[in-house]
Specification:
Elements lengths: L1 H39 L6 H17 L4 H27 L5 H24 L13 E4 L2 E4 H23 L1 H11 L1 H6 L4 H27 L5 H16 L4 H18 L8 H15 L12
């Protein structure tokens, strides 16, 4: 019995905590992605670069003396008009095309490449490591967990809860879900669908920027940082249900735990193929994902 307890405390529990922190990080990145796809039916390939943009804006503003906790509020507010302009100026120009899915995918992919090169040009290719805003660690099941990572777990849960309240418990959220379900009917009922689309895209971009601010002290800031999370974020969105907030949370926690625990028993190089294999199986068995889409239950 004592051997089993020690195995849990010193081997399994640390990996599960690592998986939990990674899960919250992936959920924060995927949250805006799933809202954008669930409403606009647009695969935003530049979402990772918007995540990086939030981190770089925080890095720039932090270098002139603004405190981290102010940046947590300020950066998403800065990202909102950026997302709104991108949707109105770029996405809407090709949104009604007969080849919308391919066109918007290529458009956002190109936008991501331009943003990545801009980051490299302005900030250089080397990584930047912001100071941890909450130093120290706490003992959790015999495992020392940095206090900032504990804050990230709690803060991530609060952010997800607030987003769910906005989407499912407010008049604005009702308009978003109505536009996601049937944009023509919503427009006939007086919902300003075009502005709802732009606002939802801006909201998703702001969430990506917020994730960039919160994760920068853990994962550093560098031009290609968006690539680290975007593949996993897409996998989480597909498995959870494209447009489902609950699906993102469940799939994010599940897949990162599978990734963390499987690395104990097999080579870590196989952890990503296992996760992608789960995604392939989900697409074959239940293409709509675990929880379906925004506006569809």
């Amino acid at each position: 019995m004592s051997t089993a307890i020690e195995y849990f405390q010193f081997v399994l529990a640390p990996q599960m905590l690592i998986g939990l922190v990674l899960g919250v990080a992936v959920i924060l990145v995927a949250l805006g992605l799933t809202i954008i796809f669930g409403l606009l039916d647009v695969i935003n390939m530049s979402h990772g670069e918007f995540y990086a943009l939030g981190a770089f804006i925080a890095l720039a503003l932090g270098s002139i003396g603004l405190p981290f906790w102010l940046l947590v509020i300020l950066v998403p507010l800065v990202m909102l008009p950026i997302g709104y302009v991108v949707e109105r100026g770029l996405i809407q120009r090709v949104f009604h095309s007969s080849e919308r899915h391919v066109t918007t995918l290529l458009l956002t992919f190109g936008l991501g490449l331009v943003m990545e090169d801009a980051f490299r040009l302005v900030f250089g290719p080397n990584p930047h490591k912001p100071e941890t805003p909450i130093p120290g660690a706490i003992d959790v099941f015999g495992v020392f967990l940095p206090l900032y990572r504990l804050f990230l777990i709690v803060g991530g849960a609060v952010i997800v809860a607030l987003v769910a309240v906005v989407v499912y418990r407010t008049r604005l959220g009702a308009m978003v879900r109505a536009a996601a379900f049937d944009r023509h009917m919503a427009a006939s009922l007086g919902v300003p669908v075009q502005h709802v689309y732009a606002g939802a895209f801006a909201f998703g971009v702001a969430l990506a920027g917020l994730a960039g601010v919160l994760l920068a002290p853990i994962y550093s800031v560098f031009p290609t940082m968006g690539r680290d999370f975007i593949l996993m974020a897409f996998t989480v969105v597909i498995v959870g249900g494209m447009g489902s907030i609950a699906g993102v949370v469940v799939a994010g926690l599940l897949l990162t735990q599978v990734q963390a625990i499987s690395s104990l028993y097999i080579s870590p190089v196989w952890s990503d193929p296992i996760v992608f294999g789960i995604m392939v199986i989900m697409l074959m068995v239940r293409p709509q994902g675990l929880f379906g889409r925004l506006g569809h239950g």
